[in-house]
Amino acid sequence: MKRTLIGATAIVAVGTMALSGCGGSSSTSSGKSGGTTTLKLVAADYGTGPANTSSKYWASVADAFHKANPTITVNVQVVTWANFDTTVQTMVQNKQYPDITEGDYFSNYAQQGLLYPASKVLSNPGNLLPAFKAQGSYKGVQYGMPFTTSSRTLFYNKKLFKKAGIMSAPKTWADIQTDASKIKALGDTGFGLPLGSEEGQAEALLWMLGNGGGYQNSSGKYTINSPQNIQTFQFLKKLVAAGDTEPNPANKMRTDQWQQFAQGKVGMINGSPALVPIIESAKVLKDSDWTSVPIAGKNGPLTKTLGVSDNVAAFKTDGTKAAAIKKFLDFTYQDTYQLKFDKEYDLLPATTSAAKALASDPIFGPFLTALPHSIQYPSDTAWAQVKTNIQQNIGTAVTGDPKTVLDSIQAKASAN
Amino acid sequence: MTRLARALGPVPWLLPAVALIGLVVLWPVVVLFKTSFQNISPDGFVNGWAGLGNFRALFAEPALLSVVLRTVVWVVVVVAITMVLGLMLAQLFNVEFPGRKAARWALIAPWAASVMMTSLIFRWALDYTSGPINILLKDLGIVHSLGTNQTDWLGRPVAAFIWMMGVAVLVSLPFTIYALLAGLQTIPADLYEAARVDGADSWRMYRSITLPLLRPAFTVALLINVINIFNSFPIIWEMTRGQPGSSTSTTTTFMFQLKQAFIGESASMSVLNFAMVIVIVLVFLKVTRWKEQVN
């Protein structure tokens, strides 16, 4: 309830700002008859409260843009993540299209022909990180433009490692097994394994990659029950049975496990840059108490990790605004605004030039070097359903028979 | 002509009620059935008809049978415990004691609190590392240490389900007690006096006077509880999301789990739910001879 209220006030606040900006411009542009364009931007809120709500970021971008381009006004609507998908879906279902969205991207909209291709609304689409191109593409044309990204690494608690007498970072599954059991002996959780519905699809994929598996093969066919994946879950099942993870990982949520890590109670966990602010705000672990390294695989650290992007999409609406959208997106994708966004929310940039500018950063450097080689989730239109099914059921692969569970997920995935 | 006009006379007065029932009750049922035969993308685009495809997919779900059986256990156990406890507590609240008024008011609290809130509080209280219930159990020496499989009540399907049944009983009790209490107060006191004169003991009076005369109130409370518990969603959703897999789901939460991506299949689960409710109610009416009761 409180959250909605904050969201609502934020929207009102932005609305007023946009309105006042509009009022200023209309007097100057009134000479040129009807030369103004209004763009409606719907963006997800990455903030944790009113202090760092994304409406502040977007208001500053929109204001600066309006100063440079007085004939174009951008109305910003910031929506909480929990409501983002339904808000956009409702707009689309009611044909009240936004002009630009930033957040989750639906390949279905490209399939329905509702979106502009990237080449039409961005002067230099080649600057977008190529690793994320396929994910935003439909039939070879890029529609979803990555705006912010993150990649996964293995976080570990150096303090607990020292206490358990472990000298080096875990590199292989065998390392994880021995290190986790040593940490368990201290009375803490060895490895945080959130396989519940929040992010089970990410955790599962990170382990599959460690054994040369994945969700799809190179030709885009689902291979969820491949021998490698089954072997992966047989290993995880052993790890769980030995008590080296938190109890009953099958329904544990990522947010809770990250909190536990931030409280210093978990030895190792797969994380993304978004874990950093959680650790900092818990104030239990000092910067020197934890670090992050490439994710451990069966025989050695992963050279390719999971990369995730949130995307910008441009809707065609009445088809007259492509030029205005292009101006705005070119403006927004400047390095300054990319870096400003990523600094604010501990995320990673989505353009090659901004990534270069951040490569020497001590905390984000390791994530960025992993980014260009990152693996993405499947990008076909069936993925939305497959993902939900994985989130729902993947946890049972460590409680029941791994093969049966993976077989049934595969059966449903290939039925599409 | 006047005859027709007279016959049509009540129509304008009935119209709002009929329209309301049509819009709020019948129309959604029609849409539900229609949806269950459609092929719908996860974000709501209708991609044509699916024939019986949704039902076929539903019956091919490996979890379906155990979900249905679990629903039966859920309804029978929760309603049975609620009714028995309700009978006992209603009797207690019917007796004169100091502070009875306050106690009756206090009874409303768990009823007035939203079920979702109650469930969230229990989820938090059962947290495996720091939930107050676990801390209490540890202080009492019932569990050995926090953060273990033993304290992870909501992570073990059977334990989680038992806890959730407990919460369901807790939130159903106030209504049940009030319904039965209202029934108890309609029983004339002189019946008991007459029985006492005839030398009946209190157990005999309870069996021969209280229970039979309480039957209408009991029947109403029972039916409403069966329907409520069958449809109960927030307890399970907030405490376990029906996970791991669907191993703590009932048909209602299972329908919602499916809805996230398989809208058509979820609608066919709803159709199945709808059919089950109708059957339960019909059987119930037959068994309890509802008409005689109400008249």
Mean pLDDT of chain B: 88
**How are the strands ordered across the major sheet of chain B?**
1-2
- Give the N-terminus to C-terminus distance of chain A in angstroms: 38 Å
Which residues of chain B sit in consecutive blocks of at least 5 with pLDDT less than 50? Answer: none
Beta-strand percentage range of chain B: under 5%
Numbering strands along the chain, what is their spatial order in the largest sheet of chain A? Answer: 2-1-3-11-6
Distance between the termini of chain B: 38 Å
Q: Largest inter-chain interface? A: A-B, 35 and 29 residues
The CATH superfamily name of the largest domain in chain A is: Periplasmic binding protein-like II
Annotated CATH architecture of the domain at 64-248 in chain B: Orthogonal Bundle
What is the helix fraction of residues of chain A, given as a range?
Answer: 40-55%
State the domain count of chain A: 2
Could you say what the CATH architecture of the largest domain in chain A is? 3-Layer(aba) Sandwich
Give a short account of the largest sheet of chain A.
5 strands, mixed
Uncertain stretches of chain A: 1-33
SSE series of chain A: HEHEHEHHEEEEHHEHHHEHEEHHHHHH
Secondary structure category of chain A: alpha/beta
Helix and strand element order of chain B: HHEEHHHHHHHHHHHH
Q: Globular, elongated, flat, extended or rod-shaped: what is the shape of chain A?
A: globular
Tell me the β content of chain A.
Answer: 5-15%
Keywords (chain A): Signal
InterPro entries (chain A): Bact_solute-bd_prot1, SBP
Pfam families (chain A): SBP_bac_1
Signal peptide (chain A): 1-20
